[in-house]
Amino acid sequence: MAGDFLIRSRKAAIVAGVPTAVELEGMLRAAALRVTAPRVAVLAAVHAHPHADTDSILGVVRSELPTVSHQAVYDVLRALSMAGLARRIQPSGSVARYEARVGDNHHHVVCRSCGTIADVDCAVGAAPCLLPSDTERGFVVDEAEVTYWGLCPRCAPAPATD
Questions:
Q1: Domain boundaries, given as residue ranges, for the chain
Q2: N or C end of the chain: smaller count of CB under 10 Å?
Q3: 145: pLDDT confidence band, cut at 50, 70 and 90?
Q4: Arithmetic mean of pLDDT, 22-30
Q5: Integer Cα distance of 40 and 42 in angstroms
Q6: What's the pLDDT score for residue 73?
Q7: Residue 44: how many other CB atoms lie within 10 Å
Q8: Could you tell me whether strands 147-150 and 97-99 are parallel, antiparallel, or unpaired per DSSP bridges?
């Protein structure tokens, strides 16, 4: 059963432009995580659907593994996040979302109307790209998370023409 999933995943990966099942398995092993069909499926879904929420990831995974539980997907997402293979983000007013773009210093822009999320490269590049004005409280800052808010091109009003 897991072998059948991996064969289907290899075909899907080529089409979707995500890492192959073999590459996903290698990522899991490199992070000292056991390779299981649910872990490969969830990692593939996170790569194929950046900024997806848990329910969306569950739907994608269930299309390949119909019996996977909601709790199993939550557990895999937590393990992937802790291992640095996925990043959990939660813009204000939104459910948690996951992305495979990890290890760099990037931020996000969120559409106030439709909720679309896109990546924004950090202008400085090195983490943290911003430092708090008050560092006297003893904190060692290693990351700054910036969220830009606005309207995406589909939701923004058309520019006035003369």
A1: 2-89, 104-154
A2: C
A3: confident
A4: 97
A5: 6
A6: 98
A7: 27
A8: unpaired
According to the model, what pLDDT value does residue 158 have? 80
Q: Under CATH, domain 104-154 is a member of which superfamily?
A: Ferric-uptake regulator, C-terminal dimerisarion domain (3.30.1490.190)
Kind plus residue range of the DSSP H or E element containing 150:
strand 147-150
Question: How does pLDDT run across 87-135, given as a tens digit for each residue?
Answer: 999 998 889 999 999 988 789 999 999 999 999 988 776 666 676 776 6
Fold match, 2-89 / 104-154: no
- Which sign does the torsion angle of CA 57, 63, 64, 66 carry? positive
What secondary structure does DSSP assign to 53-84, as a single string? Answer: EHHHHHHHHHHH-TT--HHHHHHHHHHHHHTT
- For the chain, give the percent of residues with pLDDT over 90: 62
**Higher per-residue pLDDT: 40 or 131:** 40
The CATH code of domain 2-89 reads: 1.10.10.10
Q: How far apart are the first and last CA of the chain?
A: 62
Distance from C-alpha of 89 to C-alpha of 108, rounded to nearest angstrom? 9
Name, in order, each residue with C-beta under 8 angstroms of 106's C-beta and a sequence gap of 6 or more.
119, 120, 121, 122
Which residues lie closer than 8 Å to 23 by C-beta, 6 or more apart? 13
